[in-house]
Amino acid sequence: MIHMEGVSVVYPDGTRALSGVDLQVDRGEFCFIVGASGSGKSTLLQLLYRELVPTEGRVIIAGQDVAGLPRSRVPMLRRNVGVVFQDFRLLPDKNVWENVAFALDVVGASRREKFRKVPLALELVGLGEKESSLPNQLSGGERQRVSIARALVNNPSILLADEPTGNLDPDISWEIMQLLTNIAERGTTVLCATHDRIIVDGMRKRVVSLVGGTIVRDARGGGGYDEP
């Protein structure tokens, strides 16, 4: 599903964010991307939804080289790649239903399609009864669930989560991680960038460790944050 080959990213100021990254993630796999701040985790995810393009190497999703996509086809790529952010990025003046529907508006979905897909996404994350609530009426965990529903409403084959528990307390963090695990079990490929050692150690999923933009460990069989 995801194949990165010899990927490097160098910013205009000369900063090297990634260097020679090779990574393959299969359909339905759950993979943690771990490392300290500045290690390249967010840069790696940004390559997968074409927020960035590599300076060197190839980024291939479902057999398609995303760096070579014309700009007009990037929205189609993003229908297949959902993204969840640490800070939720919800629209404060829109209710839960409208926030999830916004992801469908961006890709030109019909009114009929929105009324079919939005309730399904909200039920999946356990928020079917909150559709009329505004973001400021929700807890942090509920807001992150709305963010996940929005990322899933287009039925993407890949879900990227960038520090999804960074603003949540430990109990709610575990609930969010269990939700992401359930999503992977339904066949969606999930990549989760985090520096939360407790979550990574407890989940026992595949762990890819970045140091200075380079992969230094890939524990495919499931491992902890610091295991060799």
Describe the structure.
Helix 3 (96-106) packs parallel to helix 5 (140-152). The longest helix has 16 residues, at 170-185. This protein has seven helices and ten strands. The protein is globular. With 228 residues, the protein is of the alpha/beta class. The strands form two sheets. The protein has a six-stranded mixed beta sheet, sandwiched between helices. Strands 2-1-4-5 form a four-stranded antiparallel beta sheet, with helices on one face. The two termini are 26 Å apart.
Can you tell me the residue ranges where pLDDT is under 50 for at least 5 consecutive residues? none
Strand content: 25-35%
The outline comes out as globular
- Count of helical regions: 7
Determine the structural class based on helices, strands and strand pairing. alpha/beta
As a whole number of angstroms, the C-alpha radius of gyration is 17 Å
Question: How many β-strand runs?
Answer: 10
User: What is the topology, as strand order, of the major beta sheet?
Assistant: 6-7-8-3-9-10
Largest sheet: 6 strands, mixed
Question: pLDDT average, as an integer?
Answer: 91
End-to-end distance? 26 Å
Tell me roughly what share of residues is in helical segments: 25-40%
Helix-strand topology string: EEEHEEHEHHHEHEHEE
Describe the structure concisely.
The protein has 228 residues and is of the alpha/beta class. It is 33% helix and 26% strand.
Q: Any chance you could write out the topology, listing elements then pairs?
A:
Elements: E1 2-10, E2 16-25, E3 30-34, H1 41-48, E4 56-61, E5 64-65, H2 74-79, E6 81-85, H3 96-106, H4 111-124, H5 140-152, E7 158-162, H6 170-185, E8 189-194, H7 197-203, E9 206-211, E10 214-219
Helix pairs in contact: 3-4, 3-5, 4-5, 5-6
